[in-house]
């Protein structure tokens, strides 16, 4: 059964700015989808509509059988990681990762177990007591990913998560994301303008241009018929 259906999704910002035209996509359970295309083509807008951070102007978003258009972001089983990390600066790494679970009144022992498991997967166990400002860019991004995965979301959205990192770290984190993917049971939608990231991470790649889907295919299909 498809986890996520986007049916004729459209985003009109102002009268004349149509950021996304009739976006149609069925995403299978645990699939890794990459949205790729140049700046301004509508990738972020699409992701933000899925997260509920932006209203859908027209069309329907389903998770399973449930229509999500009017569901509050906090009630969607979705986590999102941004380019700029957006960690809480006054909290330690541990507190950052525990925060969402605490809000949901998860028992302390369970929070502790989940935070430590995620920290282990992301290799940040030794930084748990540090504040974000005492971490490097790569470490901060790991924490941001950790904070998202402790919630065990059904859908995991990533918006240019590696764009702020230097080339070496970007390659390393790309490999980490491939590993992460094997360890958590989640559907991924990953936004990037980087072709290499798209080709190495995606089960399927959605190429966008000027708010339209130009092509959808596996890396092999996209490589064979660019
Ligand atoms: P991408 O993520 O591919 O760079 P975006 O989804 O951010 O593209 O933007 C798609 C289009 O929508 C662009 O033309 C952008 O200028 C416009 N846009 C994005 N956010 C807003 C907004 N809040 N108000 C008006 N126009 C916007
Ligand atoms: P990178 O080369 O990856 O950008 P940095 O040069 O920022 O990393 O940091 C190198 C190491 O020093 C990292 O392990 C980081 O956690 C640690 N570090 C950086 N700043 C601080 C700090 N203010 N307090 C403690 N450790 C720090």
UniProtKB/TrEMBL annotation:
Keywords: ATP-binding, Nucleotide-binding, Transport. GO terms for biological process: carbohydrate transport. One of its GO terms (cellular component) is ATP-binding cassette (ABC) transporter complex, substrate-binding subunit-containing. One of its GO terms (molecular function) is ABC-type transporter activity. Residues 4-226 form the ABC transporter domain. It comes from the Bacteria. This is sn-glycerol-3-phosphate ABC transporter ATP-binding protein UgpC. The chain holds residues 1 to 226 of 374 of the full protein.
């Amino acid at each position: 059964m498809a986890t996520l259906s986007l049916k004729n999704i459209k985003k009109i910002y102002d009268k004349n700015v149509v950021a996304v035209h009739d976006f149609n996509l069925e995403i299978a359970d645990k699939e890794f989808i990459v949205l790729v295309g140049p700046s301004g083509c509508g990738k972020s807008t699409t992701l933000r509509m899925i997260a509920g951070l932006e209203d859908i102007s027209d069309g329907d978003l389903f998770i399973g059988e449930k229509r999500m258009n009017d569901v509050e972001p906090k009630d969607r089983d979705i986590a999102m990681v941004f380019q700029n990390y957006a960690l809480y600066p006054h909290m330690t790494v541990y507190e950052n990762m525990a925060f969402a679970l605490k809000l949901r009144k998860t028992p302390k022992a369970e929070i502790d177990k989940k935070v430590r498991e995620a920290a282990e997967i992301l290799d940040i166990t030794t930084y748990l007591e540090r504040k974000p400002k005492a971490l490097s860019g790569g470490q901060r991004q790991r924490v941001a990913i950790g904070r998202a995965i402790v919630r065990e979301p059904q859908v995991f959205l990533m918006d240019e998560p590696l764009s702020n990192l230097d080339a070496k770290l970007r390659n390393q984190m790309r490999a980490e994301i491939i590993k992460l993917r094997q360890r958590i049971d989640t559907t991924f939608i990953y936004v990037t303008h980087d072709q290499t990231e798209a080709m190495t991470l995606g089960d399927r790649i959605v190429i966008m241009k000027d708010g339209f889907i130009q092509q959808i295919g596996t890396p092999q299909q996209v490589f064979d018929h660019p």
